[in-house]
Design a protein that fits this description.
alpha/beta; nine-stranded mixed sheet; six-stranded parallel sheet; binds adenosine-5'-diphosphate; about 475 residues
Length: about 475
Amino acid sequence: MKNKIKVLMLAAEITPLAKVGGLGDVIGALPKALKALDTDIRLCLPFYGSIDTKKHKTKKITDFEVALNGQTETASLWQTFLPDTKIPVYLVKNKYFDGSEIYLDLGAMKDGLYLNVVGDLERFTFFSCAALEAVKKVKFSPDIVHANDWHVGIVPHLLKTPANQKFFKNTKTVYTIHNLTNQGITHKKNLKYLNWEAPTIKADFKNNDINLMVQGILGADIVTTVSQTYAQEILTPKFGAGLQRILKTKEKNLFGVLNGIDTDFFNPETDGYLAQKYSWKNLDKKIINKLSLQKKLGLPQNENIPVIGFVSRFVWQKGVDLIIDKYSRLNCQFIFLGTGEKKYEDQLKNLAKKFPRQFSVQIKFDEGLAHDIYAGSDMFLVPSRFEPCGLTQMIAMRYGAVPIVRLTGGLADTVNNDVGFTFKTFNSSSLYKTLKKALEIYQNKPQFKQLQINGMRSDFSWNKSAKEYLDLYKKLIKKC
Ligand code: ADP
């Protein structure tokens, strides 16, 4: 135990305790792979009201106080374990998180940036302060704090404050950007917990705004993002979301590490959600899932009509707006599952209303239905404007649904012509042409089956990427 590298992983989501999207999946899976590499990894999460306390057997450890820029707030510290592992998950309970929501607002986008509500910035800066206090309480002094996304972007700075610097004297920081367009920006008057005189914070002021993503980037020893292509893209004005210059200053310590997926959770051979389990060796059984899905969603049951799935947040980033009436001319069925901005939800609902035999639109978050769609689809759409990594294309491939993706970010790093269909230009006619081609190839059964099998046999596990993170941790520790 003594020589193990101690890692504290911080994020706003951990699947299956609290999930909105890919961030949760990553933080629910990467720690398992790091544990397998013999690290002493522990996690800390807000104790959201929606966490199933019985299922996760949460136990109270203690009450504690969080000192915040001259004020004090009480919280209580609880613990559970990441399911089926010995990885501790510390839970910070406080009135901020008693509601069932993970984010108070999912965030519409304006000028290419997600708009975050002030309440979320306050909740997560409180959580950042409290998480560090919590690990002091359990005497876990990490070698590495690995903070993810803007919610905990202030953590590298907090580690250096007088109240923390002794306990975290030897702690190094890795900050991972999961989505650069979600930055956590607000006017400084809204964040009462921070000391505005600190140097990194001062460096960030623009019109008295603070940007928590910038805090993470400036404060961390190493910055990573979730694919090699996105790591390159974010240094350019097109993808840098206004932070390309700041990122350039960190270029030597900026790395792309590709996300994996939880190959136990997403496994067609064992998946309890499915009408029929299957593998690449008995792929013909997949058809049972397709027929069951068509029936469940009220689409005509026909094994010869290709089914195209789409599971996503319905937001600007994801390119939902490319799917227009013209697509009803294609001989296929589309199934959409997601929630997001009303205008995109309405656009899709409209298609389903006009073309009910071809479009099924499900506006909800439903893990089971998502698995049914991966298993029941022949193809899977990911036409994103930008995509830091993207997990759904990998999950789809694991279930033998051939991905049709736009070549950007992690989509470009995970999909090629051996496993799927790709297009470069972000517009409706490029996607339409690609779909037409995909539907032609679908008719050539052996060729299409080969694509499915190639995808199903690809390695999307975390093994390789966890080693890359471990190497980065080691590099930092050596510097101590
Ligand atoms: P994001 O940008 O949202 O993080 P990713 O592709 O990285 O996108 O990850 C999305 C994850 O969230 C996948 O596991 C996907 O299956 C899941 N997901 C997204 N929307 C829904 C939904 N409405 N119901 C169930 N799962 C969903």
